[in-house]
Protein 1
Amino acid sequence: MKQVNSISKYLLNVDISERETKIYFDAIEVGDYPLTEKESYILSKIKKSAFLCGLYDSYSAIWNPNNNIRKRFFLILSILETQPNFSNKFLTHLTLWQSIRIMFFGLIKYVIFVVLGTVFVNVLNILFYVNRL
Amino acid sequence: MLTDYDFIVVGSGCSGVQSAQTLLEDGAKVLMLDVGIQADPNSSIIPNKDFIAIRKSEHNQGEYFLGKDLGGVERSWLKNKNRLTPLLEFVEKTANGNIPLSGLWKDSFLESHAQGGLGNSWGRGVFAFSPDEARKAGIDFNILKKGYEKIASRIGVFGKSKMSLGELSGLEYPLALDKSMAKVWSKFHKNKMEWNSKGVFLERTPLAISPNSFGDNNNYNDMDFWSLENTQGYHPGMTLKRLHEYKRFHYKGNSLVDSYKEKGDIVEVQFSNTLNQKIETLTCKKIIICASVLGTARIVLKSNKAYEHKLPFISNPFFYTSWINMSMLGNANSVMRSSFSQLSLYYKIKEREEFSLMNLYTYRSLLLHKLIREVPFNFRLSYQLINILKEALVFGGVHLPEFQEEENGVQLVKSSNNATGFQLNIDYRQDDKRIKKNLSSIKRKMLSLGCLPLFSKMVNPGSSKHYGGTLPISKTPKPFTLAPSGRLHGSKNVYVGDASGFKFLPAKGLTYTIMASSHLIALNAVKKERYNTKIQLMEKITN
């Protein structure tokens, strides 16, 4: 539950219910969502916080956009889009000023997250290999 | 002459159902042989509401928007089949791996085994060939015109458009342009004369959305790509339902036609049951093959034991483009919106060339997460960006005209890789330079119309699903050609009702012309049959 909530918090800044969490886990069970050992380790670390999810996603959007953790993020995004509770997040019209503000701060935040994310993921990689030794 | 049926029609796609209707209206006893894979039963749980109401109220919408077990999400992630909604995936399902396709682009070409065939994924754009285009395709326009009129009366064709419908125009549009398309439209019309003098034409896309025949457009629901029930756009399943009302109509599903054999005045049709692979044979006076171009090629080549014989083959090159309509930034688009093409932009690269066509769509009912996946930022920013741009997004599907090229063709070849022992090999090359030229040409035009290019997506040859030319229409009887009546040269009672005969494919969508032509071919076949019966009766009386 916490894993899914951190990701949904990162994606849309929303808390999700048990219903969406169940849909997510059911889909993972029947679908093709494998994780490598390293990806499982990384997911176990980032699932605790929306901030860490953001750092990881910002890093991997550039360096490894098709990884399996991002595929799970995408699954949650698509589940959120097809839930009436969150439909407004996808259907509401934004004014020009709202749009400019969101994009301005969004882009700045993205650049910072890419830099921090690169450091963060490299640290996680080192920790993963150290733990394996 | 005792046969099981007067006519056997192969396939339930747009051409199959229209041929069958023509035959039934004339009093014939008709059997339709069809593999007939059906849509996911999920389609029956879709409520009869409009897209927005469903999005805001239905808790189980994921079951049909994302597909069974959310399988649609995986396909969107892979980016390879995100053109289709989960409901429409049944169009691409093949029956137990029967006669697989081979060749470099085998995954893009398609012989649909769905009930309703490729017609299920038709964008409902209605385009008639011009007299010149019909001549190049090998069809007499004056006759074809009658076919267009008949089909319009059956399915409901709406739109006034000189380029798309020519003199067949006349009816009003069922749906209004949304705000975004209205802005593009008005920008074009400010300099219409200048555009036209350069050979560029923008018209509203005529559509097969009928308020009279199949639905009520006062309550347009924008769910046509998700459901085959309670929608207003025409699809062949609507006609198939009507055919079942005729007592003389028989439908046999799970039947993959393998070949035919002419024995005197009788045609023996061999087909296999796709559930148990049992081979069966039925007889008829005449067969009309409407198995789509690849399916028909397979049946004709197999029946004539013409293994390794290369039939010519043409397919419209196709690619997607996306744009931001700058005048829509910060503005909300209309709530009442259609996911079908709203505007059709006709243009030429060179004056003496044929027209290319870009159909313009605004985006809503295919859901945003598919677009978010295309943006190269993190998901959070990609979501924000797409959410901001959603009202201003414009998509273009570009089709290029195509003539026969010598090197392109299909062959039925023996293969040890599958149970049937055969595969259909497609040898096809596409001129990528031509596509690039088209792309830069439309970029200039769209910029002048206030639309900034976002991204374009080249798709593999064959993705347009517009095929033709395998059995070209020919007045002189040559093997593997069709007489103008639709009869296969060298045969007595074998007719082909799909686009196999078209020697040229204009950039326009083919579905309307295929339906019109199949109606005319069925009419020819039934007239010929009536004539034969009269002669036989006369002979009996004289004897």
Note: The mean pLDDT of chain A is 93.
Protein 2
Amino acid sequence: MTKWPLILIALLCGCSRPAMPDLRQQITRAQIDAAGQPLLLVEIPALRNAATLAPRSRTGGVTTWRSRDDVSLSFRDGLVVATRRLGDDLMSAEIENSLRLLRGQTDAGYVPRFHSYLDGEYQTLFRSFQCRAGSRRPERIEVMGRPHASTRIEEECRGPDLRFTNIYWRGADGTIWKSRQWISPRVGYAEIERLHR
Amino acid sequence: MVSCSGLHRGVVFSLLLTAIATPNRLWAEVDSTYNTYGYPGLIDMPAAVSPPDAELALSFSHFHNNTRSTLTFQFLRRLSASFRYASIQNTHLTSATGAPVIHFRFDRSFSLHYRFRDETPRWPALAVGLNDIIGTGVYASEYVVATKTLRHNVRVTGGIGWGRLGSMNGFSNPLGLFGSNWRHRHQMDLDADTGGELKLGDLFHGDAAFFGGVEWQATPRLKLIAEYSSDSYDSEDGTTFDRRIPLNIGAVYRLRPMTTLAVNYLYGSELGVQLSMALNPKQPPFSGGRDPAPPPVVARGTPAAELLEVSVAEADKPALETRLRDALAAQSIELRGFSLTPTIARVVISGGAPNKTAQNIGRTARILTAILPTQIETFELIPLSHGLAPSQVTLQRRTLEREEFALDGSWASYAQARIAPAEAAALPPETSFKRFRPHIGVYLQPAFFDPDEPLRADFGLQASAQFEPRRGLIFSGSLRKKLIGTLDQSTRTSDSVLPHVRSDGYLYDRDGDPAIPELTAAYYFQPGDDLFGRMTLGYLEPMFGGLSTELLWSRNDSNFAAGIELNYVQQRDFDQLFGFQDYKIVTGHVSGYWSLQGGFDLQLDVGRYLAGDWGSTITVERTFRNGWRLGAFATFTDVSFEDFGEGSFDKGLMLTIPVGWVSGDSTQENYATVIRPLQRDGGARLKVAGRLHEVLRAHQRPGLKNGWGRFWR
């Protein structure tokens, strides 16, 4: 009964959201080098949110990175396989085909990609997509003042009512220095940069 | 004659193409909105359309001297149920010409709208509806209506109405074919009628009339409507407002996805406005994902697990327990018991939101992988609810290590878990935990639909505390101090001929400042397999104190439970402090609880109510797996409708909203309310906090399964 005012406020007010914090202006190369651990810069334009994430755990080839306000993103070889605390989270993903596609190991056809989510009643909801390699070209990029030679690879995916294009900037050793990866309908794309120490 | 000219084929082909290019659009282009009565329709008339399943809409409509506030819930995909609170000024007491006029009237009414046929390319959708079935009959009417989309943005509706909807240009009832009694209908008489009786005898009786209209979706957000109304407003015409012509026109604009604003020009004389706001329990604002990210699984064989490679025998158990307690506390989970064998860990936990028990289990299991020696292969987790342990969830450590990031990890973890009744006698000894839990907050207590004032409320401070000296023994109490409010403004002295077990409520509101709404000692226990017990002693609720006892048989995996409750209570003083009045009563019920397929709960209570009346209550609730519950109940006892007074029998709506649904995190609280059109003394049940079925529901297999999607959340 005591939470009734909260409910009313939440239902009646549209939440006004602040502008996305511009972390690039706040982070310096010196700070990155002093951090003593690798960092990810993750920006989510649709949520107007940005944060730096540090590695927290590694299980079975999946590394989970976590921000100071307890948002986490988990990656398998640089590709997002789970998110937490973003709201409409990616609960899990099957991205083996996409990894092969990135390495140029599949021919030009479509390969499946699977995601799982929770629906409004917190039940598991699977979404499947058909993906293919888009353009692929070498590109020199700069991440926080540090240049990297990379291959820019597009992954074009479509599902029954959704489509998205992920973009990866992949170094010669397989490191994904920078990427734009689609998370979910409400979260949209996450823009991720690896701040090398 | 079939023409096969090239032109014809071209047209058919392009039509086909249009149909393919705009899938599902052909019949969904015209927006379905709520009418002035708040049920699906045109402006003042019904239409054979339905809002999306489970939509809950609140609409406010006003035109000269007429205000209607309606709560409509799409109870089934085809069935809309409405509860309406209307105020009408200067209306006649009956629809007869020359009847006396009353200055002001508040009226409560229910409606049902059932779309029994979907629209097809050739045939219209069909719906049938009943209005004001158990109210006073001011809005009593029935209809059968057909709605057909003509073009993607034009829709026509036509129907036949009875009662109010058969009053304009009415004709002799076609159902008169089945007997002449169908041609007659009792006249509404506000003076003589106490309302509340189901007037089934009058349904579809008396004169009938046609109504209809057309809707044009001018833009994706704007819909224009014109209708011919078959309601002649006999009892309102000339005093409430002037009904000049039977035509209405209106414009509905969609402000936000679930909010519409309508402006109508009604009956050739009045301008009206209507605001409808909806939400859907299936669509939480934040998708339920605002809890902090969970702790990770620490897999054996990885560098992080090196420290765990000690045997259970040499492990420092008190140190493990401390680490476990701290790690769980960081997740708002309480450690209540902990024991180790060489390969098995048993962990008792409590806390967290009830519909997120599976999430708490998932988090506890992950924490255990980071703390327990690697030899331990099996985790037995026992979530407590009010000291009861209905379930034990057994998980294999291997599964957790393997499935954390698997695509179907949630299903895999459920399939590989064993969920069984916990053996209460074999629980590990209690660890130290926070036994005293004080809380200071604010409260808001609304009172809806008083016959004199639709909404009253009190707002104030509430201090509450719980003390649990040992598992299952819970002392709780609360103290309220009103800061501001209008609940004490009710001056409706009870005219009840029954013992005033509820109808003196306004006296409690007036004198209870400060008040002790509740001060109890409760003991929860498990006397046998699948058996649960409760004894609660003290000031049980604002109006009664005494002893309440309950026994419930509930199997872990069953969708049926049965219980018996026996109470001996005495009526409390109006000041809601420590004193009692003279009235004492033994009251109690035998109850059956069924969970039906598709998210419906049915409850039947048979027994003796507070006023000494005997009877039964039937409750139907639609339940959502995210914790929302919406339902209705009705109680029939041996008190005659006449003795019961206005309303004739006790009935109402029940609504439970998990606060976490709104905030997106694991808030434990639920907002639960019962909305009664009127509170009288017949069929009144004792209110006791923590009844067993409610306490156990989320912790047994069906409840855990419903929440299992959150295991890896």
Note: Residues 1-27 of chain B have pLDDT under 50 and may be disordered.
Protein 3
Amino acid sequence: MRNIFLFVRRYFNLLFFLLLQVVSVYFIIHYSKYHQAAFGNTANQVTGKVNTQYSNIERYFHLKKTNDSLIKANEGLYNKLKVDFELPDTSTKAVIDSIMIDSIMQFKKYTYLAARVVSNSVSAQNNYIVLSRGRLRNLRPGMGIVDLNNAVIGITTDVSDDFAVVMSLLHKDSHISGKLLKGGETGTLSWDGKEPNMITLTNIPKSAKIAKGDSVISSGFSTSFPKGIMIGTVEAVYKEVSTSNFKIKLRTAANFYNLEYAYAIDNSQQNAINNILDKIKDKH
Amino acid sequence: MSSFIKNIIRFVMFILFQVYVLDKISLHQMLAPYVYFMFILWLPFKMNRTLLMLLAFLLGFTLDSFSYHPGFHAAACVLIAYVRPFLINLLIPQEGAETNYDEPSFKSMGGMLPYLIYAAVLSFLHNAWLFLLEAWQFGDLWYFFVKTFLSTLVSLLLVLITELIFTRKQKFRTNTV
């Protein structure tokens, strides 16, 4: 017994060093547990507040870019207005099906919730985006996040009272499914940790016809995004030697360098679908 | 100003500078400019080693909180805090020189070269351990070597610039009257 005490006393610094290293590595591996822990939540609130102060200053310098991007988004919306469309044949009578005008929103499945980006990184290997909108204003974990021009940027992983942490597309654990707009083949998106704004699409069979510049959209299979949200465009196509799949380099539609505002997509059926999936998982 | 308050101010300034200035600069994916660990380089000679590691952990953990994925910087900081006393013992010119000055600097380490070796070794260890933990997840070794080498050069340059801009006046203390 005495020898153990002597050993601990003699090598206390080394043991303490090893202990701290183990704690750090534990945090790295189990970071999702860290987020659930109480101090993780507090840390979110504190760093969120500091980041808000900083972004208040930085936002001013990006006003021009934000304006341009809003004008672009508006242009897209104007082009979808009914007044822009004229029926090809004037002899047919236009009848508006009044039943499908959803005035009490009972058919509405997706709701866009605007939020400001208070912190964002592209240079780390695991990037997170922080939004200044949290649980108190209807954000939940698992919501899809898009930028001003409706291009995918990530999924919320952790929500505190006033802030939400978003796992960016530029994160090693981000595995959103993407679909080729032309052929309809579905694959998995991932990031190799190197170049921001460039992601990889895998699991696309070699039978697919792909050209540079093709669009990749969200598949609609996950509960986070509706079908058809823009993810990126094909930049280069490589053939994987050992499999029958392509490996496709994409340029993301969203520019991760200057995110100022974002929309969270609230899927009203998300809980219902996830409950069923959980039940199935419990059974097996 | 007491050493305690001075170090609190340094802690806050280094973290803010790292998070809001250096981390916002993305020159190239191979260059990650880190300078915040100078806080550990500048801690007093006489500090208890346990306290040294604890402070380093706190520094790394604070920086990690801003990137929302804790552990990476904390691990790297604890490593250099652990190695620091050994390195000082090796580099300090003569017996008892560390009692004459408070903190490591050009003057107290006996010239520019020993101090730069001290800074170079610690920034190399910091970057290597940090990028190794990151590369582990991606499994890309070549990337790790190049990034460590280039980032250490950048870190060293930043340390040198910081030393030249913020010259710390240090009193020479001696027991002999």
Note: The two ends of chain A are 49 Å apart (CA to CA).
